[in-house]
Design goal:
alpha/beta; Rossmann fold; nine-stranded mixed β-sheet; globular
């Protein structure tokens, strides 16, 4: 089993994951607010919060607007980071040392795990086992979010993996841009999750996805939709005609999100 034994730079900045928080609050409201049985005290776990716990605390505030009693656990490998973060702990917020085998206490349950900007130093073939280990801590129906962002959080791509009776379902890929870097589908290639980053090449399904999206983007630009938000929205709508599983929710498109839920789940 792969262990979390590789230090990360931990240079997480304020609001780096704000867009991901907004997506989860919009699209996973039921997950964040569910309160029956073991869900009543099920936590959000932020794995690898970094040198400072800014994103853990920001997410706690965002999610508690929906669920004021939500327990939040920040997990980090390096003890000094944990000790420093503990000055921000309170009755609902805890910080613990640990890795992929989450440091949960007896009776604790988990509804949501975030592991962003954590696996870039791992080999692609290690990723499935890491997903399985993390997903095993979730309640059935719980969600694991794993992927990468650029430093300011302007560009994001993440796996959305759901705990199902059979194990972990590779439910969707989530793309987001705030348009501060303009927009073209190629913008996302360097921020793909670790197991896809080197696979955007001919013959791979993810390459075909990007080729179709790029063609759609070029077509809408030729039709006069050149401003980044407009080009994004129209390119996704055009792409949805070509491939199955694109979610064309108006809020998502307006705010720069592409959610792709391929039938049968995201390919390996």
């Amino acid at each position: 089993m792969t262990s979390l034994d590789r230090k990360t730079r931990g240079r997480t900045s304020h609001q780096r994951l704000q867009a991901l928080d907004a997506y989860l609050a919009h699209s996973e409201r039921g997950l964040l607010t569910r309160g029956d049985g073991a869900w009543a005290r099920a936590a959000f776990v932020d794995l690898g919060f970094g040198e400072h716990p800014w994103t853990t605390l920001e997410s706690a505030r965002a999610f508690r607007e929906l669920n004021p009693g939500l327990p939040v656990v920040g997990v980090e490998l390096e003890p000094p980071r944990v000790e420093s973060a503990r000055e921000h702990a309170d009755a609902l917020t805890d910080f613990r040392q640990g890795g992929f085998e989450l440091p949960l206490r007896p009776g604790e349950s988990v509804r949501l795990i975030r592991a962003m900007n954590l696996l870039r130093g791992y080999r692609p073939e290690e990723v499935p086992a890491i997903h399985q280990t993390l997903g095993g801590a979730l309640l059935e129906g719980g969600l694991l979010v794993e992927g990468s962002t650029d430093t300011p959080g302007a560009v994001l791509v993440a796996h959305l993996l759901r705990r199902v009776p059979e194990g972990i379902s590779r439910e969707a890929l989530l793309f987001h841009t705030d348009f501060s870097r303009g927009f073209a589908p190629v913008l996302f290639r360097d921020w793909m999750p670790r197991d896809f980053r080197r696979r955007v090449k001919p013959g791979e399904p993810i390459h075909a996805f990007f080729a179709d999206w790029t063609a759609a983007w070029q077509e809408v630009r030729e039709a006069g939709h050149v401003e980044p938000p407009e080009a994004f929205r129209h390119s996704v709508l055009r792409l949805a005609v070509r491939i199955e599983g694109l979610v064309t929710d108006a809020w998502l498109l307006e705010h720069g999100y592409l959610l792709w839920k391929p039938p049968g789940g995201v390919f390996r």
